[in-house]
Write a structure and sequence with these properties.
The structure holds 2 protein chains of 2 kinds. Chain A is an alpha/beta fold. Chain A has 12 helices and 8 strands. The two termini of chain A are 25 Å apart. Chain B is built from 13 helices and 14 strands. Classes of the chains: A alpha/beta, B alpha/beta.
Chain lengths: 307, 363
């Protein structure tokens, strides 16, 4: 693995001039796509912030071939691209191998796109699917998704006197992907570029389906300051809300274990979307949140021990 | 609540749906109608009613199917690409004869298009949209007040004819703010009892709601039954508005936001001495075919103005049956017709051999 300084000198897949929000950490991983590997890559996006902000006609922020169709089908579209790339190499033995990457937000991955994602992984396309999870439909104005954490206020789960934001806990998509028995599933975070770049490299270069779930804080959606995205992601990992781990051919490795696990309130209460939880009447929600995290963390560490 | 309040179209429509007795709202995020689910997520629980954000438009319309089957008033809203995804469910609603209200706040297409206002889903809306032999009633508001007024009408029509009613708005109407009066009105229609509703068959004969008819000839029989119902709609439910048709040389036909612009163009043309008038279809299906056909007996020239590349103009041509000439002016992909452009066409057309029949040219 090249050092970050060396990586930064390589040509990036994603140029400046895109229209993502100030402080949006998404480009941290899109810039890495070509820097971590020597393969030629094709990127397909689901409808979402990244897609809209990188492709406002007649401009494109992509320095690699890029394709978009609709919201629910990035994995299906890239299945088609990958199948054609595979046939191309078969017919023309000298053709340089092309690697495929699909990227969707949590709305386009956890919710509307899960059918296409599940099928693409099950069929075994040589495809890395990256979900950048910012915990809601941010592109359309912060509506709840299957990835929105318990208690978060969104425009469709408003926090009021009676209901404290989202009533359900988020679904664990990474676990669902592990259940597909694919070669590689990992969770990463935009605040840890070394871990992140290694996982992207692995996902792209292995010969088969891979899934990478990247925590990517959203400045307007989380109601944090534009300089807070990296810190907020770091806190999510320090509190074990977002464990960094990978499942390589079924074997679990927890890539980072905080020396002292911080209470989840440290992460929650620095974000405007959880501001209402400061009200003592919702103290039990924070406790519930904490126990969900503890339970999931213990489960995860136990999986690693089994391996 | 009868005082005038200033509201954006999307929010006003949402509150009007609540006043119209909407029991359940199901929706999925898409611009430019996100104010509707956001508003409903707060208001429906306050009213003790149902709000669910679905995981896709396909799910939202299926939730409407499920809720409507229980005999409750259910609705969903979306915008063009999302409405395309709903077509399967709308076809099933038609097949099962379930009432539903679907609002399309249209944006530019095809494909992802853009999020600017458009009227390019006219074909999809007025021809059924999904697979099979069916129709949906299509209401086309042209003001925020009409978005409000058409909600009780939409639910009534849906219940009366057990079919889907589409409210075809667009990004301008959804986003713009206008003063509106929100009032709960008593329905004047005699609505049939929902004696088909799935409410639990304990103590009564089972109800069957379905769209699968496999026995030889049975589907044709069902489709004829649907057709009979649609003929009643065609006969009874046509809505349109005539504007300044007296002595018209050119009759503009436009609906929704385009009709507002057309109205201004007609006024400007009249000031210049050009005799222009407007027929505004309010129901797009049933289309005011008879009205326009009769107008074609009297007026020699029609101009269809739309925010698409020419869709309703086909219905205008069908309605005039060759008795008059039909011109078209359209803007697409977020383009909005300009008053000056329409007046320019009217100016040119008024001297081109149209005119009120039997009266002759003015110039």
């Amino acid at each position: 693995m090249p050092k970050l300084q060396e990586m930064a000198k390589k040509k990036t897949a994603f140029s400046s001039g895109h229209r993502l929000c100030a402080g949006c950490p998404v480009p941290i991983f899109t810039k890495m796509l070509t820097r971590v590997t020597d393969y030629d890559i094709v990127v397909g996006s689901a409808t979402g912030c990244l897609e809209v902000a990188s492709s406002i006609f007649p401009y494109s922020a992509w320095n690699v071939p890029w394709i978009h169709t609709a919201f629910e089908n990035a994995a299906a579209t890239m299945s088609g691209v990958e199948a054609m790339a595979r046939v191309r190499s078969k017919r023309n033995g000298n053709a340089k191998k092309i690697k495929c990457v699909a990227i969707g937000g949590d709305g386009g991955t956890y919710d509307i796109g899960i059918q296409a994602l599940s099928a693409a992984m099950e069929r075994g396309h040589d495809l890395l699917y990256i979900c950048y999870d910012n915990g809601a439909y941010m592109n359309t104005g912060i509506q709840r998704s299957g990835a929105t954490p318990l208690g978060a206020a969104t425009t469709t789960t408003p926090a009021g006197q009676v209901i404290a934001g989202k009533q359900q806990q988020r679904k664990d998509l990474s676990k669902i992907m592990v259940a597909h028995h694919i070669d590689y599933v990992a969770q990463a975070s935009i605040h840890d570029p070394i871990d992140l770049s290694e996982k992207i490299k692995k996902g792209i270069e292995l010969d088969g389906p891979a899934f990478l779930n990247i925590l990517s804080p959203c400045v307007p959606g989380w109601r944090i300051n534009p300089d807070m995205a990296v810190e907020s992601a770091s806190l999510a990992v320090e509190t074990c809300f977002w464990p960094l781990y990978e499942v390589d051919s079924g074997d679990y490795t927890v890539n980072y274990k905080p020396g002292k696990k911080r209470p989840v309130s440290d992460w929650l209460l620095t974000q405007g979307r959880f501001r209402h939880l400061k009200d003592p009447q919702w103290a039990h929600l924070i406790d519930e949140f904490q126990s969900l995290i503890d339970e999931q963390w213990d489960w995860l560490v136990a999986q690693e021990k089994k391996a | 609540m009868s005082e005038r309040v200033l509201m954006c179209g999307n929010k006003a429509l949402a509150e009007a749906a609540i006043l119209a007795g909407c029991d359940a709202y199901f929706g999925y995020p898409i611009t430019p109608q996100n104010e509707i689910p956001a508003y409903m997520s707060r208001r429906m629980p306050e009213e003790g009613r149902v709000f669910v954000q679905s995981e896709s438009e396909l799910a939202a319309i299926s939730m409407v199917f499920g809720a409507s089957a229980t005999g409750k008033r259910a609705m969903t809203t979306s915008s063009s690409p999302g409405i395309s995804l709903m077509q399967e469910g709308i076809s099933y609603l038609a097949g099962a004869e379930l009432p539903a209200v679907v609002v399309n706040v249209m944006r530019g297409g095809p494909g992802l298009g853009n999020i600017a206002p458009s009227q390019s889903d006219y074909f999809q809306a007025t021809r059924g949209g999904g697979h099979g032999d069916y129709r949906t009633i299509v209401l086309a508001p042209s003001t925020v007040q009409e978005m409000v007024d058409f909600m009780p009408l939409a639910f009534d029509l849906a219940d009366q004819y057990t079919m889907t009613v589409l409210v075809l708005a667009d990004g301008i109407l959804g986003q713009m703010m206008e003063p509106v009066v929100l009032e709960k009105k008593q329905s004047k229609r005699k609505l049939p009892p929902k004696d088909w509703a799935l409410t639990g068959a304990n103590g009564r004969k089972q109800h069957i709601v379905r769209s699968l008819w496999l026995a030889d000839g049975r589907l044709e029989e069902q489709n004829r039954k649907l057709q009979t119902k649609y003929e009643q709609v065609l006969k009874n439910e046509v809505l349109f508005e005539d504007y300044r048709l007296e002595g018209a040389e050119v009759v503009v036909v436009a609906y929704g936001v385009a009709a507002r612009i057309a109205r201004s163009a007609v006024d400007s043309a009249r000031e210049e001495g050009i005799a222009a008038g407007l027929i505004r279809p309010i129901t797009l299906w049933p289309f005011p075919t008879e009205r326009i056909g009769k107008a074609a007996d009297k007026y020699g020239l029609f101009l269809a103005v739309e925010m698409n590349m020419g869709q309703m103009v086909e219905d205008v041509r069908l309605a005039v049956e060759g008795k008059a000439s039909v011109l078209f002016h359209g803007r697409s992909g977020g383009g909005v017709p300009a008053v000056e452009d329409i007046v320019g066409i009217l100016r040119q057309a008024s001297g081109s051999g149209g005119g009120e029949k039997g009266v002759g040219k003015r110039k």
